[in-house]
Amino acid sequence: MRKKLIYLLSLSITFILLFFLILLNYSYSDFDSSNVKETISLLSSETYNGRLAGSTENAMVADFIENKFRESNLKPYGDDSYKKDFDTICPVYTNTTPYLKILSNGEVEEELQYGVDFKEDMINFRGNTFTFSNKDKISSFFLSIEVTTSENKFLFFVPKEEELYFRSSFMSDFPYDAVIMITENTKNKIITSLNEGKEISIHIPFESETKTISNVVGVIEGTDKEAAPLVITAHFDHLGQDGLGNIYGGALDNASGTSFILELQRSLSTFAKPNRDIIFVALNAEEFGLLGSKQFAEENIFNIKNSEVMNFDMVGITGFPITFMQGVDFKDKDSELLNSLEEICKKNNTSYEVLYQDSSDHASFNKLGIDAVSFCHSDLSKIHTPYDSLTYINLDAIDSVYEIVNQKIMDSCYSKFTLFLYNKLLILILSIILGILIGYPLLKKKQ
Question: EC no. (predicted)?
Answer without folding.
Answer: 3.4.11.6
